[in-house]
Known about the structure:
The structure holds two protein chains of two kinds. By secondary structure, chain A is mostly helical. Chain A has twelve helices and no strands. In chain B, 35% of the residues lie in helices and 29% in strands. Chain B is built from eleven helices and 13 strands. A six-stranded mixed sheet of chain B has the order 5-6-7-3-8-9, with helices on both faces. Chain B has a four-stranded antiparallel sheet with strand order 11-12-10-13, with helices on one face. The chains are: A mainly alpha, B alpha/beta. Chains A and B meet through α1 and α5 of A and α2 and α3 of B.
Amino acid sequence: MTSPIKIITFRELGSFFDSLTAYILIIAFLGFSGFFTWIYGGDIFIRKEADLQVFFSIAKWTLFFFIPALTMKMIAEEKKTGTIELLLTKAVSPRQLVLGKFFACLLLVLITLGFTLVYYVSVSKLGNIDHGATVSGYLGLILMSAAYISIGLFASSLTNNQIVAFLLALFIGIFFHFIFDVLSNSSRGILGTLFLNLSVNEHVESISRGVIDTKDLIYFISLTLLGLFAAEWLISRKK
Amino acid sequence: MDLIVSSLSKRYESQKAVDDISFSVKSGEIVGFLGPNGAGKTTTMKMLTQYIAPDSGQIQYGGSTSSSSLDIRRAIGYLPEHNPLYEDMPVMDYLGFCAALQGVNPSEIPSKVREMVVKCGLDVEKHKKITELSKGFRQRVGLAQAIIHNPKILILDEPTTGLDPNQIVEIRELIKNLGKEKTVILSTHILPEVEATCDRILIINKGKIVADGTVANLRKQSESRQILRVRIDGAETERIYQSLQSMPDVRMVDILQQAENKFEIQSNSELPLNREVFKLCVSNHWELLEMIPFETKLEDIFRDLTVN
């Protein structure tokens, strides 16, 4: 017997690739990040440093917008078409359902990021790349994606309208991505520290510097778990 | 697996959707759930399948209350109302997915899927995406996903909606066969369907069970009147009408068609009128061309019980 989590993960992943979602995401992501990394503005050739810092800072924003587009239909659509009833009356618990969807989104993000390993190889041919910093840069992106996916799933389980789910996920996400950062700069004392600690940006930066601090890991893991638990709770709350 | 429901209740805000209902269904029995729209059929079915939790009351599956809820769900096959399906999936993939979720051994899934495709008549459409299917085929896919894991309990919410008459007959046959060894509960608006498929009927109205029994039993319970339709030749309509009217135990005579001398006779008692009508014709030298007995229709019983 295969675990329901795995079954759901692969069904969702399959449906990403059956529809155009996966291809659009991959192409658009590579297009955006490639353009800014290699061609436009402060690209690698201008900086003359063999690193992927430009790519990482672009990817942070691209993923911020792309992930809600992935997660928006995940639960909202199931609720709208009634297929959630089909799943939950089979041998699937709400937790398995949420985790299945979570891993499907995470896997797609990993596949997308996998393509950018070409950048890594290219840059390493150009000069002495800091391998440690690159690995931790990727790790930061992956942890950030996990957190945003769980926020997206939470938003998707709040409504049965995909657009609402998308906007909600962006709305919640923008606080972590941007607003807490801004607030921390303008506040002092405990409040400033609090906002700084809540900011996704701060923790991604911290990881990207190559120092993997448990504080940062705990931050991302708890943000992810919080989103997943909230989504599970919303789904299992029976009418 | 027997199903025992005791004092189940469910309330939506101010409205009682299901109000303290109790019944049991034995293995090998097909029970038809009848009721007007909004009577609480679907709510009851959703509680039986553990999709929604009851406010109070208990449901026992096969006498055991200890088994975990996932095990119970594995023993249930469910076709929800409106038959939701993953539209973007091909039929075969979808059935495989459902089988896997219900814990069918991965090595057995392909053969199970093939079996269902044959059993539910999906062969011509098996490679199509569900969104391309007609309503009748979608309904078959819904039924196939409900039975693919060989569940002990089958709960079908309006299994034959959207099917054409031939398909209805096929699906009824399928349900009847399944009902030989499983516990089947189906809901429907179509009264002849219940008569054709079910061993027992539960009529539910305003969240309460108002009747529980076999079709024959229900007929006995309700006011039983016999109805005869006759066509008599050999005299004027008016004369025949008068004679029929004057027979003992006749409650009412209707002229259905004057030109053909067709009448409808309702009896007052349970005693059949056939003999009396025949004798009347013989003694008057009339020719009895047609005599069709009508039983009280299930529709009438249903209306009696559900219209206040």
